[in-house]
Amino acid sequence: MEFPKPDPDLKLRFLWLGIGYALVLLVVFMSLTSSPIDMGELFPYEDKVYHAFAYFTLMAWFGQIYHDRFQRNMIAFVFIFMGVLLEYLQSFDPNRMAEFADMVANTTGVALGFWLALGPLRNTLLNFERVIFRN
User: Fold this and answer.
1) Cβ neighbours of residue 129 closer than 8 Å, sequence gap 6 or more
2) In total, how many domains does the chain have?
3) Tens digits of per-residue pLDDT, 40-57?
4) 65 CB burial (10 A radius; 0-12, 13-18, 19+)
5) What is the CA radius of gyration of the chain?
6) Residue 43: what pLDDT?
7) Calpha distance 101→24 (Å, rounded)
8) Pseudo-torsion of CA 41, 44, 47, 52, nearest 10°?
9) In a domain? residue 79
10) What distance in Å separates the CA atoms of residue 46 and residue 50, rounded to the nearest whole number?
11) pLDDT in tens, 100-135
12) Per the domain annotation, does 96 fall within a domain?
């Protein structure tokens, strides 16, 4: 009996990982910079949507690369911890403010990305590679 591979055979795995780590660095930078981008607010709590989207993107991206249950669970844990830690670190910057609601938004984003990584969309990168390499 042959068990399925826990991770997809991505030909561009190092590229996808590089993009993922660049996204992580971008989130860390945007979370800790003393002069964040002021996009204005179109509606109340708009920044919470940005928080959720950022962490959704991280979890969904790495969920494309790692399909193993343990790895996926650990990635979710790391991103939740990262979201809480970065919010806490913001409290040390007089120009920033740590908010519990941001921690909740970050965690919600991770949960949505985790859920997406369990479904049929978890092979988006693999399917993209099949199209560009015609396999």
Assistant:
1) 10, 11, 12, 135
2) 1
3) 777 778 889 999 999 999
4) buried
5) 17
6) 78
7) 20
8) -140
9) yes
10) 7
11) 999 999 999 999 999 998 987 889 999 999 999 985
12) yes
